[in-house]
Amino acid sequence: MTESPKVSGSLRNRLAVTLIGGASLLAVLLFLVVRTYAAQIAQQGQDSILGASVTSILDAAVLRDDQVEIDFPYAAFSMLTTPAHDRVFYAIYRDAELLSGYADLPLPKGSDSGERRYQSAEFIGKPIRISTASRTLLGADVKTRITVSVAQTQDALSDRLNAISRNIASFGIGFFVLVVLLSFWATSSTIAPLNRLATSVTRRGPQDLSPVIKPVPTEMLPLVASLNRLMARLNQSLTQSEDFIAEAAHRVRTPLATVRSHAETTLQRVDKEQNRQALRAMIRAIDESSRAAGQLLDHAMITFRADQLEYQQLDLVELVQKLVLRLSPVAEMKDIDLRFLGDQPVLCQGDPILLQNAIRNLIDNALKYSPSESAIDIWVTSQPQPQVEIRDQGPGFPIDEISDLAQRFSRGNNAAGTIGSGLGLTIAQDVAIAHGGKLALSNHTGGGACVIFSL
Amino acid sequence: MKFLLVEDNPDLAKAVCDRMHLDGHTIDHAENISDAIGFSETGDYDLILLDIMLPDGDGRSFLKRHRDQKRDTPVIVLTARSQVSDRISMLDLGADDYVTKPFDHEELQARCRAVLRRKAGTAQSVLQIKDVSFNPVAGVVTVCGKTINLRNRELRLLELLFNAPGQIFPKQKLVDRLFSYEEDVSENAVEVYIARLRKHLEGSALKITTHRGLGYRLDHD
Description:
The complex is a heterodimer. In chain A, the strands form 4 sheets. Chain A has a 5-stranded antiparallel sheet with strand order 4-3-7-6-5. A 5-stranded mixed sheet of chain A has the order 9-11-12-14-13, covered by helices on one side. Chain A has helices at 11-60, 74-78, 155-202, 221-269, 273-306, 316-333, 352-369, 424-434, and strands spanning 61-64, 67-70, 88-94, 97-101, 117-123, 126-138, 143-153, 312-315, 337-341, 347-350, 375-381, 387-391, 438-443, 449-454. In chain A, helix 4 (221-269) runs antiparallel to helix 5, helix 5 (273-306) runs parallel beside helix 8 and helix 7 packs antiparallel against helix 8. Chain A is of the alpha+beta class. Helix content of chain A is 51%, strand content 19%. The longest helix of chain A is centred in the first third of the chain and has 50 residues, at 11-60. Chain A folds into 3 domains: 15-163, 2-Layer Sandwich (Beta-Lactamase), CATH 3.30.450; 204-308, Helix Hairpins; 309-455, Heat Shock Protein 90 (2-Layer Sandwich), CATH 3.30.565. The model of chain A has no long low-confidence stretch (mean pLDDT 84). By secondary structure, chain B is α/β, with parallel strands linked by helices. Chain B folds into 2 domains: 2-118, 3-Layer(aba) Sandwich (Rossmann fold); 134-220, Winged helix-like DNA-binding domain superfamily/Winged helix DNA-binding domain (Arc Repressor Mutant, subunit A, Orthogonal Bundle), CATH 1.10.10. Helices cover 36% and strands 25% of the residues of chain B. Chain B contains 7 helices and 14 strands. In chain B, the strands form 4 sheets. In chain B, strands 2-1-3-6-7 form a 5-stranded parallel sheet. A 4-stranded antiparallel sheet of chain B has the order 8-9-10-11, with helices on one face. Chain B is elongated. At the A-B interface, helix 4, helix 5, helix 6 and helix 7 of A face helix 1, helix 4, helix 5 and helix 6 of B.
């Protein structure tokens, strides 16, 4: 049996993870960039209004009789009105002295260059944005510096930012979903040719070793090319082995046939008992070696085929009937009755060549060990599983060796004087096991051997 | 019977021909497919014995041609191949039977008879001596107009004696012809069959006589 290869990851998962991971990273990045940018723009808007407010207050400040007078322009605060009803704070300093407003409103740090300055801070527990600017007022003999700070809470700003964020987020999620779907489609369409190749290779019969000719993507070309080379090599070695076995059989059997025929003919012509015995011994030796050679080659072939059975639907009754018909001339010569029982078709899955060989070996065995003018009964039944039962009226199996008989080259100790290589039962057992069945040997009570070959 | 043997190995061909002649059959020998085609189209054969591996091609192509031309002379294939490796069955190609080399001549004869028996309608020779007639192919024996049933070995024994009435057959030779070489049988085993035959032939003009130390002979009044 073949070992299933070790799995290291999955191409489909790897591809999908890469695509989906990239997509999610992109979606998050997009969200962050757009949101930051939106926040910056919104902040700039608020800053410019705050700055305008500060400037308009500063512009309204005048120095009169050494007193600072500020007439708050209406617009200075009305321009800060927002739909979220943000609160507005202010503070006006003359030099370091608070003239009006909230004394604890944070002032910007650092040098005062007269430019507008902006900062974010926290005031009465709320985030605020402060704009500060200053201006020098010149009186008759006085020079004083007015600093104005205007601050606003950021409720409207954050409302707007949240709305924008929601939009970007749904856009990002949509993008992500789209990419996930696309990546599933992309992975399966990328993997599909691989799957098709695997299916077409798997579906082949064991004898089909022709190269894969269906078009494949460029990236798979090296794989398919080496697969084709491997199959060509396998095909070649299979053919070589089969040819070798056929050739070996031919080379061994033809000269044996010549010797046997000559020996038989000579036996008809010589009278001297000594010579006749020698010739008979010769014929027996030839039969023994040819049977052994045949069974060895058959056994090699079966071992070789058992890994890749050529399963097909077949009728066991028909198969055995043909065998019985074929073997009946041999049985007749010994006046043995080959009785076949079974008329209902027994359908099963199997390799007909192997099954034929196995059952033939079993019937051959029965013929060999049966006395003249006896009978061999052969049943084919479908219950409990498709099986062939062969009963003869010979000496039966030696009871203490019954479990070892199917071992290679093992023969019963009562087999002396009968020609055999000891491979017949092994072949039958190997075939049964290759088909998921078994071979059961027993002696039946009336005497004689009983063999059950089941699938 | 008249056979055509198609076999490229001259030694084996000679051995088979010798043996067939010994049994009183006529046999022609073709060494390759083209000769075989010539012989089979001109001669009138009862049976063709065909080797598979031939110098000018595969014997199966001869078989196919033979069947395509609707010739019905039975063909028995002599194969040296392994049963398992022969993926295309000879029988599917129109062979009537096959024997695997090396083959037992008695088995080959038995198969020839079985094949000829199946081919009903072929002219079958019936041997007749006095009031006993014998059809060796069909295995039918008629004694005084009455058909009797013989077992296979009895038939073969009768055939041997019938083919050469008046000739003495030593026991040992009869044993060789009736029993396979696998079987360990004594010469006495043949006596059983002689006794049975005598019983079957009772009342006819034929009788089997024992010649002490020599063997048996078929005589008639």
